[in-house]
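A student in our group prepared the protein record below, which I am reviewing. Here is the record exactly as it was handed to me.
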Amino acid sequence: MSQVSKSRSENTRIEDPQTEAVATQAPQEAVPPAASVKREHSSKVYALMTSGTIVSRVLGFLRTALLAVAIGSSTTMADIFEKANVIPTIIFMLLAGGIFNVVLVPQLIKASKNSDNGRSYTSKLLTLTIVVVGAATVLLTLMAGPLIKVLTLGWTPAMLALGTTFAFWCLPQIFFYGVYAVVGQVLNAHGRFAAFMWAPVVNNVVQIGVIGAFIALFGAYGGDANQLENWSAAKTVLLAGGSTLGIALQAVVLFWPLRNLGLKLRPDFAWRGMGLRHVGKIAIWTLGSMTVGNIASLVNSRFVSAATRRAWPCPTGAPRCPANTR
């Protein structure tokens, strides 16, 4: 009897192959393949990154438009603020921007695969960044006056004095650019890409708010013939200080997702063993390439400042001057 039952059971299984196939394949169809899940996740991350860039660009355009409403687009004050505000970006890219983006990323990815998920290396890197970039920022801020003189052409003493004041408020941005770049690359090395792309949105929102407050407090630019003479310290603090505040918050907001990585980072001054000598050899070539491009930008910016001054030679800051004041 047992053999008959066994034979019937086998016959039943053979005679109904579709049922067996469905029973075998059903669990596999319920769970998407790993490659498909990874592809879907990558698409979502890419969409989130792209949307962050688009939103940031739109807000940046709005910020530029509002700034033109506040101080004009081709006035002496617009030229002074633009010069002081762009110097930190160019200097940072000249000194370390390429190194952070090109050299450190492979090192961070390699360290993230260690048993501690890169905690030790990342702690040392952040400490080194804060110390070195912080010291460089202090030094460059103290050199605000000479920097403005070297990077401008044909400016009057009044313009140079106000440009130096603006630079004192704007040059600390170098430090926050450095922190933003390193923390962002740490997040990228651990697969957290969205925060790095959305952080500039915070900067633009803050600066739009600051410029809006400037217009509300001091009014929009209306062709003031004495714009430079009527400029006040409060206007400088609000405009230049607000710009630096936006860059600072752009860096600070990244510490939240950084904390969520669970690395438990601590200050670490034991910089030996980080492979800085090897990184330095690679960085020399990267720095050389970045130097050529950014020095060209600085030289071009210097001549642009002279061209603006020649186009609008009125010492009061108005866009047009009477013939007897030229």
Summary: The longest helix spans residues 34-71. The chain has twelve helices and no strands.
